[in-house]
Amino acid sequence: MTAKVTGVSDFPDAFKEQRNTSGIGQMDDQNDPVNMLLGLKDVRKAAHNCTVFQSGAKPGRIVIPSEVAIRETRQIPFEVDPPEHGGFRELLNPWFKRPLDDAYQASLQQIIDDTIDCALRAQSLDIVSEFALPLQSKALTLLLNTTMDKAQTWIDWGTHVFRSEDSDLDGDKANILYDYIDHEIDKAIANPSDDLYSVLLAAQVNGQKMTKEQVKGVMILTFAGGRDTVINAITNSIAYFSENISDLQRIHDEPEIINRAVEELIRYFSPLTQMGRVATEDTQVCEHAIKADSRISLCWASANRDESVFKNPNNVDFDRKVNPHVSFGFSHHNCLGATHARQLLRQLVLSLASKVASIDIIKADENIEKLGEFSRKVGFNRLQVSIKAK
């Protein structure tokens, strides 16, 4: 008899000691050091202060690990600061709010139901590569308003479009995405449709027609920004319910708690550890000097476990009434795809609650991020499970 795998739903707080002593951590990233802001108050304050902590630095530099070596295209609106940023958000927000529409949700529900039903028919499966990745890719066809057959290409890319098993920064793999987007943009120019490429190519922002390079920047962000994060959120939620099946049954019995439940899962797991900014001037955070043109990180994962804000932060609590987590960022650069991600998780969790009786973990390979002085579990490289129907 195979021993039961346990502890998969435990995601320790890697930052507690440093957050409570100095409030800041350090890590090196390709010889471009990063000062990590760890407390919720400091993270939110810096995220809001785009004058001192900019996003519009050299393309790729605010990402951790830095992508300066593998791209020159500026991701939009992610790497644009106000006031220009506002014009791009004004254009993009209505499109990325479409997951609130009934027709969108109905199509998404069909994708979710098909994915769960396939999992229930399997003796076992890897939730990362055989469940979360296909679900994320198929759901993305709705967000782009394109055909479902394209999803298989995206599935073949794997769980991260910039990283491989051998490297956190795989330039060859990144070029596959860039070439793909260039090709899709050229197709949309030749034969416009109602997909996101065509909408952007026909749009004006801040009084000027969008360029091909700007369209490419939006599309790189759309493909890369919500890929491994959504996959982590799906996989980690299933890992949680495998050891807390009564919480899944509670959601079935009390569907009105679904919004609180999803927000709490997102807070606890923090699918994206951090995001960077570049200082425009000499300044100070937590009594630490920050030099002009140096990098800071807004450590969402640490801020979401801040004991001064969250009671029992290392527990998942679906009755948490106040939950100002920053898993989707904060201020003007809050995540453009948050509506899509939230809706996907709400419908997925409700469907799991309706269909699933048990989730047994067969094998778990944890994905541990090495962040200077910290090591943080962010998800799983593989999570083999057996799911039984009600």
TrEMBL record:
InterPro entries, sorted: Cyt_P450, Cyt_P450_B, Cyt_P450_sf
Membrane spanning residue stretches: none
Gene3D superfamilies: Cytochrome P450
Pfam families: p450
Family: Belongs to the cytochrome P450 family.
Protein name in UniProt: Cytochrome P450
Lineage per the UniProt record: Bacteria, Pseudomonadati, Pseudomonadota, Gammaproteobacteria, Alteromonadales
